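Researcher: Here's a chain I'd like modeled. Treat it as a single chain, no partners, no ligands.
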Amino acid sequence: MKHLAPILWVYFLTTFSSFAQNRTLKLDAAVTTTDQVTIKGKVVPYKATAGTQPVYDENGKPIASLFYVYYERSDVTDRTTRPLFISFNGGPGAASCWMHIGYTGPKRVKVDSEGYPVQPYGVTDNPHSILDVADIVYVEPVNTGFSRPVNDSIPRSKFFGVNADIKYLAEWLNMFVSRKNRWPSPKYLIGESYGTTRVSGLALELQNANWMYLNGVILVSPTDLGIDRKGPVAAANMLPYYAATAWYHKVLPTDLQQKDLDAILPEVEQFTINELTPAIVKGGFLEPEKRKQMAAKIARYSGLSEKVVLEHNLAVPSSFYWKELLRDKGFTVGRLDSRYLGIDRQGAGERPDYAAEYDSWKHSFTPAINYYLREKLNYKTDLKYFISGQTGQWDRAGQNTDRTGENLRQAVAQNPYLHVMIQSGYYDGATDYFNAKYNLWNMDPSGKLKNRLQWKGYRGGHMMYLRDEDLATSTEDIREFVKKTLPKPDQPAKY
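Model: Modeled as a single isolated chain. Structure tokens:
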């Protein structure tokens, strides 16, 4: 059953010269459909609203329109205690489709059990969706999905910067929550990749500028969040990821290879913290014998040769690692998920020709999201769905300096209800799992908030949920997180 929501439809044209095309954009519109999905053996009926809502400037003038999809469980009558999840993806120019039809939504992209594309393209029911425990809105920032500025005269600086992005999205969310009457509901932010930068900043901006307090923030494959790790720490911290990748591809020494991954990684992490970082700190003044010992151990854990490790002064760049690990077998490994293999024009070189995993994901997600939004959710538009890459140069300096890790720490400190969970894939080389742990350890130097910060690891990559096994585990971890962070009746937020 489908019907148009009873709100004003306003149309205007926006031109994007890089694509030499005009498209009609709906500034403020929505269409609603109904459906149901079976989750954990129980039927969950829901309604899905696909629509747009304006972004206003400080003078109340519309400057952009954001596309969203909002799912509400339809057999719930009282939403005052019903959690609302607000979901963002990353990039910063990535659309929301990845978690929308890959992770938490009621429909899931058709892929095999390990996440590889299959045909025919499309979506299927997601038996692990979190819609049983929470309503969800997937938000597309400007120039992702169907979201656009109203015209080319609008300065992109209003949208395309660390803190500019946070500011306008917080204002937009204030209006969305007001329109949907969700102020009483417990609220959660969930972001993936650059979306973790976004939601970490939003946690404080929503509190301080919009007086909206959260129960939880979930960081899926987090960025560095502006937490300093330059120099020796940055160089050393990649080794645990290298070890996981080498284990997956079965190139570790026999005694390590025959162990389970969970048995190997703690050993590598301790070596990284206690031996490798101090060794790299000494640079060229590290004793020759110690240098050889370090190279041998790095080679043992990474699957590389001692010669290669020494040539890189114990600090092997990740781009070189993706090219080198399986060079003798004729393959590269993926950046965002090192389980994926690529084939380069030639074996020589310092980095792969392309990102094998990302091309695989776009292969399955692009046709699926276009089909789903247009045919199943009945959202009709001639706009191109921007799946990635349309946000240009992102401002990370000056007023847009990234301090989002500190923003999140401050939000947690100010709000005794607020908890944080990090989810990481062991085979993610772009936002690797050990640096995610480093975030957790260094976000709160005092240690006074650590009982509200937790980390979970999975045997996938950047989008660990593409594996059936990880999808089941990671969504269950979200359910447990919600259960843990919903206060008991009359439990006050105080220390």
